[in-house]
Specification:
With 151 residues, the chain is of the alpha/beta class. Helices cover 48% and strands 22% of the residues. It contains 5 helices and 5 strands; from the N terminus they run βαβαβαβααβ. The radius of gyration is 16 Å and the shape is globular. This is Universal stress protein.
C-alpha cells in the first residue's frame, strides 16, 4: 500500500486528528511516517516597520513553537507504538504549502495527510486554505482530515 506517509501539521484540533489518522494508516500499511511543520517566515515581509531585533525574536519564537508542535505529535505517535520522524521546515522565501510540497519530493512520500478546518465563505477567502493549495501543488495522494466546520 503506502511506503512513506507524511503528515503536515500545525497546532490545531484538526491537525491532531490528522496525526492520529496518519499514525493509524502507517501502522496498518507498514509505512514509515514523517511529521512536518512549516514555519511561514515569508509573513515577515508584511512587517516592514518591525525592527530586526523584534523580527528575530518572533522568528525564534515561531521556530521554538514549531518544534514543540512536532515534539507533541511525535509523542502521540510514540504512545501508539509508532516511531515517527519529524522535520521542521523553514524558509524566508517560500510559503507553507511550497515548503511542504518540496519536503514531500525530498522525502519520496507517497501519501500526504493534512487537516482542513472546513472554513467557508469569507473566512476561507481571508484565511486561505493550505490544504487546498497543497492539492494543487503535489502529485501524490492526499488524505484531507476534516474538522468541524465553524458556524
Amino acid at each position: 500500500m503506502y511506503q512513506h506517509i507524511v503528515a503536515a501539521i500545525d497546532d490545531s484540533d484538526t491537525s491532531r486528528r490528522a496525526i492520529r489518522e496518519a499514525v493509524a494508516l502507517a501502522q496498518s500499511s507498514g509505512a514509515s511516517l514523517t511529521l512536518v511543520h512549516a514555519v511561514d517566515e515569508a509573513l515577515f515581509a508584511h512587517f516592514s516597520h518591525t525592527t530586526l531585533a523584534n523580527r528575530d525574536a518572533v522568528e525564534k519564537a515561531l521556530i521554538a513553537e514549531g518544534q514543540n508542535v512536532l515534539d507533541a505529535a511525535a509523542q502521540v505517535a510514540a504512545d501508539a507504538g509508532m516511531d515517527a520522524q519529524t522535520r521542521l521546515l523553514t524558509s524566508k522565501h517560500q510559503s507553507t504549502s511550497d515548503q511542504v510540497a518540496e519536503a514531500l519530493r525530498a522525502l519520496h512520500a507517497d501519501l500526504l495527510v493534512v487537516g482542513s478546518h472546513g472554513r467557508r465563505g469569507v473566512q476561507r477567502l481571508v484565511l486561505g486554505s493550505v490544504a487546498e493549495r497543497l492539492l494543487k501543488k503535489v502529485t501524490i495522494s492526499v488524505l484531507i482530515v476534516r474538522g468541524i466546520a465553524p458556524d
